[in-house]
Amino acid sequence: MPFLSSGVFSRVIALALLTTLSTGCALLPWKRTKREKDSAPRATLPRFIGTITLVDEDERFVLIDTGMLPDLTTGAKLRSVTGAAESGKLTVSDVRKRPFIIADITHGEPKKGDRVVEE
Predict the structure, then answer these.
(1) What residues pair up with 11 in beta bridges, in sequence order?
(2) H or E, element range at 20
(3) CB–CB of 65/99 below 8 Å?
(4) pLDDT single digits (tens) 27-60
(5) How much helix, strand and coil, in percent to the nearest 5, is found in the chain?
(6) Pairing assessment for the beta strands 61-65 and 48-56 based on DSSP bridges
(7) DSSP assignment letter at 94
(8) Fewer CB within 10 A of the end CB, N or C, for the chain?
(9) 64 DSSP β-pair partners
(10) What is this structure's pTM?
(11) How many CB atoms lie within 10 A of CB 91?
């Protein structure tokens, strides 16, 4: 390069390299501070409760097999899910016998085999 002497050219290259390296490292994920990691929004999945094993459409309640899950509080709000779509809303009653709980159907039409998650 005839318009730049070798000393000026090497300084320009060194400055460009220094600028690139000093800003680039801050963007790497392992260089983030704890505060930056904690402040990032996180998606939370609804907690799986169990599976509907019986539906009584006349009395409007379902029997849910919760497996080894600890007891839920009476009045807890739940959702039943068929595939990816919500099929009903449920409210936990005080009737239970491990590993089953009974929930009243408050909305929708849950089906046997639906997954139940917390609302």
Answers:
(1) none
(2) helix 6-24
(3) yes
(4) 555 555 666 556 667 778 888 999 999 999 999 9
(5) 25, 40, 35
(6) antiparallel
(7) E
(8) N
(9) 52, 101
(10) 0.62
(11) 16
At residue 17, φ and ψ (nearest 5 deg) are: -65, -40
Token code pair at residue 14: 């060194």
Alpha carbon separation from 58 to 55, 97, 105, 109 (Å, rounded) = 9, 21, 11, 12
Which residues lie closer than 8 Å to 19 by C-beta, 6 or more apart?
A: none
Tell me how far apart the alpha carbons of residues 108 and 86 are, in angstroms, rounded to a whole number: 8
Look up residue 47 and give its DSSP letter: P
Element spanning 19, H or E: helix 6-24
- Exposed, middle or buried by CB within 10 Å (0-12, 13-18, 19+), for 23? exposed
Neighbour count for residue 46 (Cβ, 10 Å) = 13
What pLDDT, on the 0 to 100 scale, is given for residue 37? 57
The Cα angle at residue 46 between residues 30 and 102, in degrees rounded to 5:
155
Q: What value does the mean pLDDT take over residues 67-95?
A: 90
Return the structure tokens found at 87: 């099929």
